[in-house]
Amino acid sequence: MRFRPVSFMALTVAALSSFAAFAQPYPNKPIRIIVAIAAGSPTDVVMRAAANEVLGPLGQPLTIENRPGGDQVIGAEACAKSAPDGYTLCVISQTGISTNPHVFSNLSYDPARDFKGVVQLWFLIQGMIVSGSVPVKSVEELRALAIAKPGSLNLGNLGVGGPDLHRRWLNDKWNTQIVGIPYKGANLVMNALISGELQISLTALGGLGGQLKAGKVRLFAVGSTRRLRQFPDVPTYAEAGLDDAPRTWWGLFAPAATSDSVIRRVNSEFVRLFREPRFAEFLENQFLEPMPTTPEDFAAFLKEDFERAGVIVKKYNLPRQ
Questions:
Q1: CATH number, domain with residue 34
Q2: What is the pLDDT of residues 27-73, one digit of tens each?
Q3: Are strands 62-66 and 217-222 parallel, antiparallel or unpaired?
Q4: Which region, left, alpha or beta, applies to residue 151 given φ > 0 means left and ψ of -120 to 50 means alpha?
C-alpha cells in the first residue's frame, strides 16, 4: 500500500474544524431532563412547563424523560451513568438524594460522588387528606380516633422506603399505629380515599385542587409556611400541632463531572424563571413553594439534609432494603 502524505493545509482545516465544534457555546443540541417520578405528577407537570419557558433563552429544546420507580433509584441511576456534558440533567427529590443512601444496602449510585446540584427547585406543599368515610372533622378528632383504635386507619403513600417516612413520623408523634399502604401513583391514592379503601394520606396537593374543592375528600391541614390562598380556612401543619412534619423538596442535578460553567448557565435560567411573577403564580397554583438557590447554597443544603435524613431514618426505623 502506497503512503500518501497529508498536507499541512488539510491538517490545519481538520484541527480548526474540531476546535470549532468543541468551542461551540452551550447548549448546541437538545437537553434531556430525567424526571424520577411518573408523568402527570406535580413535579412532572411543572418541569414540562419550565422546559418550555427556558427553551427561548437557552435556544435548544428540553425534553422530559420520566424514569419512575424504585424509590427514585431508577431515575437517579440513569442520570448518574450519563455523560457529564450538560445534555443530561435530572430532577430528584430528597428521597433519592438524602434518604436512599441510609435505606438501601447496595445502592447503585452515590449522591455525593455521582451528582452535582444545579438548583434547588421547590418544596412540595403537602396536606393531610382524609376520606369522607371517616367520622371526624379535624386533626384533633382524627388523632383521638387513631389513638383509640390503633391499626384501624390506613394511610396511602408511594412506597415503603422514604415515601413512608410521613406515616412513621405521624405514628411516633401520636403514639399510635396507622397502617401504611403503598400505591404506584398519587391518582390511585386519591381514588382509594374517595372509595373509603384508605382513610388518610399525607400527600402533595398538586393536581388535587379540583377534587378537594368538590368535597370528595377533606383537607384537614396544609404543610406550608402560611395558609393557602386556595384554602384559607384550612390550618397549616403548625397551627394543627404538626409543625415538625418532614418536608419534601425536589432539585435539579447533573452528573458530577459536568462543568461549573454549564451548571451556572442552567442555574441562572431557572432562578430567573422562578422569580418571574407569572411563573411564580403558576407554581403557587400547583401547590409548590419555590426555593431557587445558587449551586453553592444548594450544595450546603444537600450536606445538611443528608445528615438530617440519617437521623430521621434511624429515629423512625425505616427498614433497610
A1: 3.40.190.150
A2: 999 999 999 998 888 899 999 999 999 999 999 999 999 999 888 99
A3: unpaired
A4: left
